[in-house]
Amino acid sequence: MPHTILNPQVQQFIWDNTDADVTKLALQKNPFPDVEWTDILNQIAARQKAKDKLPTWFKTQNVIYPSKISVEQTSSEITAKYKASLVSGESLIDLTGGFGVDDFYFAKTVSKVAHCEMNEQLSQIVANNISTMGIANIECHTGDSLDTLTRLDKQWDWIYIDPSRRSDIKGKVFMLKDCLPNVPKLLDTYFKYSNNILIKTAPLLDISAGLSELHSVKDIYIVALNNEVKELLWNLEKGFEGSPTLHAVNLTKDDEPEVFTTPIEDEPDTVYSLPLHYLYEPNSAVMKSGAFNAVGKQFGLYKLHKHTQLYTSDSLTDFPGRRFIIQEIVPYSKPEMKKHAEGKKMNITVRNFPISVEELRKKWKIKDGGDTYAFFTTDKDNNKLMLICSKA
């Protein structure tokens, strides 16, 4: 595919149809008989997916894309850039190279990067793109990554692995041993070639399950982008036996990331309170961490209820999440709801409350949107409340 898809006229056609409806375009006659129409359509569809996720690729001419699904599954540039901030040194080998987005950013912080990819066509695509982008310190290796690791037979400053879930594994339980490569099985082998291993997993993986399968885990990074958890990063250091540190990181396109760090250990005692002047809602990375008591203690906040992951205080403080001013505390009852909620326009959140957002909207005819935020929740005395808030 690469040599035909790079025809200048084909490339111009792909760029000219960046905003086209690919399903409608597919009904047209192929203007380039020497090139597969499906290949051209795939390039357009994948490029559309790359527009926001991979702006560097999107803006670069003569870049070749794999399938649209591969682009959907790859790291975004923002998360890849963060990942690269965690590594340093002379050499890194990526055992599951894929489309090479992570390696593009690793190459900015590490002197030499090896990209390993089993799929020969994908390896060729990455090699083309590396050359097109003028990157000199990434080397592509096609074939089984373990074979490449043993053949090269050298010490690396870092090994990076993004194992993929095997398609023949059914059910909702997600274990690392069910992925390719089987990292738990190969971990001791990997440690023969590097003292530092960085593993990326999907947020679906339970943290305690990951810890049960791995050893030498020094840090776990829960990485969210715009408050949506995208990946877990596991930093393993050969011989490390201490308690791992959790880092809940929420990245945005413009601002400094929200970072909450705490050791994984017994959760500290927490202090509860009825709602005070301010309300705090943790971001998705903190929620995934499960360190609900630790985040309250670190920021000097009170929890509303053991099972209500909302916090309150009398004075405003920094917090890894959203902050609100509580305008009214409304007991959840029919007369109060008729007075304060029925027919109103507000953004609804439920936390530890028996009725869903959809049911509340329908029951009280609440419209979505506006500048008012209503939290339906339970306080420390098990009273059901609606907290009417504005953003702090």
From TrEMBL:
Taxonomy, superkingdom: Bacteria
GO biological process, one term: methylation
Keywords for the protein's UniProt record, in alphabetical order: Methyltransferase, Transferase
GO MF terms, alphabetically ordered: methyltransferase activity
One Pfam family it belongs to: PG_1098_Fer
THUMP-like domain location: 321-391
PG-1098 ferredoxin-like domain sequence ranges: 278-320
InterPro entries: PG_1098_Fer, SAM-dependent_MTases_sf, Thump-like
Coiled-coil annotated residue ranges, if any: none
Protein name per Swiss-Prot or TrEMBL: Class I SAM-dependent methyltransferase
Organism, as annotated: Flavobacterium alkalisoli
